[in-house]
Amino acid sequence: MNHQSIQIGSNRSFGIVFFIFFLLIALWPLLNNHEIRLWSLIISLIFLILGILNSKLLSPLNKLWMRFGLLLGKIVSPIIMGIIYFFVVTPTGLIMKIFRKDLLSLKKNDEKSYWIEKNDEKSNMKNQF
Questions:
Q1: Which of 8, 9, 67, 127 is least surrounded, with the fewest CB atoms within 10 Å of its CB?
Q2: CB-CB contact of 55 with 15 (8 Å)
Q3: Cα–Cα distances in Å, from 126 out to 10, 32, 49, 95, 129?
Q4: How far apart are CA 107 and CA 10, in angstroms?
Q5: pTM recorded for the entire structure
Q6: DSSP the chain
């Protein structure tokens, strides 16, 4: 995938998202009756101000965050797909082999045609909607 074709989000939405993120970090200790993290509160307010003003100062951070997301996607996606394949698809295939199921009718047979004749009509295509 070409990185030039990917559009990054607006600086405003980037600033607001990071404002919420750092605000949650600042307020999290309140759940355990601890003090607010002042450094995180200050950073969240800076992101809020820059986000509301749609500042160009957020552009480099926004681009860096997008590149980090693309890198993370290249790493995490194959891992997740591998986990799904080896823990879902492979056991399902093995279970089907054990019970000798051929759901796709892939086994070779000696008949002239692989056409499946349908005797009972389950649906009527005349009045579809």
A1: 127
A2: yes
A3: 50, 65, 61, 40, 9
A4: 55
A5: 0.62
A6: --GGGPPPPPHHHHHHHHHHHHHHHHHGGGGGT----HHHHHHHHHHHHHHHTT-GGGHHHHHHHHHHHHHHHHHHHHHHHHHHIIIIIHHHHHHHHHTT--TT--S--SSS-------S----SSS--
Which tens digit of pLDDT belongs to each residue from 70-102?
999 999 999 999 999 999 999 999 999 999 888
Q: Which residue has the tokens 């509301």?
A: 52
Cα–Cα distance for residue pair 69/1, rounded to 1 Å: 14
Choose the weakest-confidence range: 11-20, 40-49, 105-114, 120-129: 120-129
Q: Give the pair of three-digit tokens for residue 87.
A: 């823990």
pLDDT digits (tens, 9 = 90+) for 64-76: 999 999 999 999 9
